[in-house]
Structures are given as structure tokens and as C-alpha cells.
Specification:
Strand content: 25-35%
Number of domains: 1
Radius of gyration: 17 Å
CATH superfamily: Ribokinase
Order of helices and strands: EHEEHEHEHEHHEEEHHEE
Number of strands: 11
Strand order of the largest sheet: 3-2-1-4-5-6-7-8-9
Helix content: 25-40%
């Protein structure tokens, strides 16, 4: 049996709801074989990030280098890259490994659901200058869209304008994720470089406070691309997968605290 190999270059979340752990769950649930290059070790639980320890950039690159030497990578995604040094190292090793024809989904992880910063301020420009140009798809949430455009986005109409601006500027597709609008319908917009827009909708699910939806979405899209789906089909399947994971979210009670987590294997029940 052969499964498509999907590479995630991302941070490690010890609570396993986001980051590389969420990516591996997603890839496995959707029929891929996940491999990882860890960029940071993050001490976090839903709602709180207490520490971030970046992995040396040369070690991040060596993880990627070894994986491309051993596996036929079918698709890849980046998650938390954290620093300029790591971004530069990742771009250099992807060039070294001749990966231009391999689908790449870039999740520009900048701010945690808790509000904690996950990207150093001087690294934002490198996303624009080095990484977006080689992406098949970039998947910002509305906080990240604001950072990338310098303008707040408060409606689906403004999502359309921002998506067209970013896709035209960078020459790649953007998926503008609208869950942070918290409207009755959660709308994501897939914007092509030529301005064409496809809309993906699902009912907004209130009362679930968790993290990792962005990681899960980008990993699901990368897995779909690695399995041979077209971009629009991969985004549609990923939207449904994330909706199920939220709708079937897990919940634990401990010492008066409620902790929620996405259920990445809910579709199999």
C-alpha cells in the first residue's frame, strides 16, 4: 500500500490541538502519510501560549533535506515559521531540493487564537518577499489579512477586496478565511491571481473555544492536493473536514477549567 507523503514544516504544540500534531492527525485522517520538519517547540494549551523555543535554522533545514532525500513528497505546507532566520533557511532548502513543482500551502501563522504573537515582527516582510511567490495557496485568517494589507477586514465584501489585492500582488491564490467574523455562516473565499473568486460556506458553530482550525485547514488542503485533487476541490473538501472537526469537538473538565479540541477523526464515526 502506498500513501501520498505530505510534509508539514511547522511548530510543535504540546496540547496537540494545533501545529504539527494537528497536521499529522489531519493528514492521517484524510489518507496521507505525514512527515514533519519542526520549527519551534511551543508550550501551549487552548487559550494560552507560555513559551516558544525556536529550533536552530540549520536543524530545520536538515530535517527538510533528509525527508526529500528519502520520500517522494507529494505536497507540503508551512505553518509556524516564527523568525526571519527560519523562513530564509526553509526557502533556501526548498530551492536546494528543487521543489518548485510540488504543491505548497502557506499558512502565514502570525497570531495564536489566544492573541499571543507567533511571528517575530521583522519576519512579515520575508513572507511577502520569499515565500508567497512560490506558494500554490496562502491561507490567512482575518488578523493575518490585516497585517498583510494594513487594513482591517470586517465584512465578506472587504474579504473580497483584500483577497483580490493580495492575489494580484503576489501572483498566487489566497484563501481568505472568514470565521473570525462570527456570522451565522462562516465564509471562506478562494481568490485566484486573475481575480476569480470561489465561495465556501458552512454554518458557524457557536460555543466552541478551541485552536488549530487554521493548521487543520491548510494541512487538509495540502493532503487533498497531494492526493491529486484540484485546488478548488481540495479547498471544498478541507472546509467540510474542518466543519466536522469543530461540530464534533472534544471537551474535558478539570479543576473548573473547560478545554476544547478539534475532533480530527470525527468523519470516521
Amino acid at each position: 500500500m502506498t500513501l501520498p507523503v505530505i510534509l508539514t514544516i511547522a511548530g510543535s504544540d504540546n496540547s496537540a490541538g494545533a501545529g504539527a500534531q494537528a497536521d499529522l492527525k489531519t493528514i492521517s485522517a484524510l489518507g496521507g502519510y505525514g512527515v514533519t520538519a519542526i520549527t519551534c517547540v511551543v508550550a501551549e494549551v487552548p487559550g494560552k501560549v507560555s513559551a516558544i523555543y525556536p529550533i536552530p535554522a540549520e536543524i530545520v533545514a536538515e530535517q527538510v533535506r533528509l525527508l526529500f532525500g528519502a520520500f517522494p513528497i507529494a505536497a507540503m505546507k508551512t505553518g509556524m515559521l516564527h523568525s526571519s532566520a527560519i523562513i530564509e533557511s526553509v526557502v533556501a532548502v526548498l530551492d536546494e531540493c528543487n521543489t518548485r513543482k510540488i504543491p505548497l500551502v502557506v499558512d502565514p501563522v502570525m497570531v495564536a487564537t489566544s492573541g499571543d504573537a507567533l511571528l517575530q515582527a521583522d519576519a512579515v516582510a520575508l513572507y511577502r518577499d520569499l515565500l508567497f511567490s512560490r506558494a500554490t495557496l496562502v491561507t490567512p485568517n482575518l488578523d493575518e489579512v490585516r497585517v498583510l494589507t494594513g487594513k482591517p477586514v470586517t465584512s465578506v465584501a472587504e474579504m473580497r477586496d483584500a483577497g483580490r489585492e493580495l492575489a494580484t500582488r503576489h501572483g498566487c491564490a489566497f484563501l481568505i478565511k472568514g470565521g473570525h467574523l462570527r456570522e451565522a455562516t462562516s465564509t471562506d473565499l478562494l481568490v485566484a491571481p486573475d481575480g476569480d473568486i470561489a465561495e465556501f460556506c458552512a454554518p458557524f458553530i457557536p460555543g466552541v473555544s478551541t485552536h488549530g482550525t487554521g493548521c487543520t485547514m491548510s494541512a487538509a488542503i495540502a493532503t487533498g492536493l497531494g492526493r491529486g485533487l484540484g485546488l478548488r476541490e481540495a479547498v471544498g473538501a478541507a472546509k467540510q473536514f474542518v466543519h466536522r472537526a469543530i461540530a464534533s469537538s472534544l471537551r474535558w473538565e478539570k479543576d473548573g477549567r473547560t478545554t476544547n479540541a478539534l475532533h480530527h477523526f470525527a468523519h470516521g464515526e
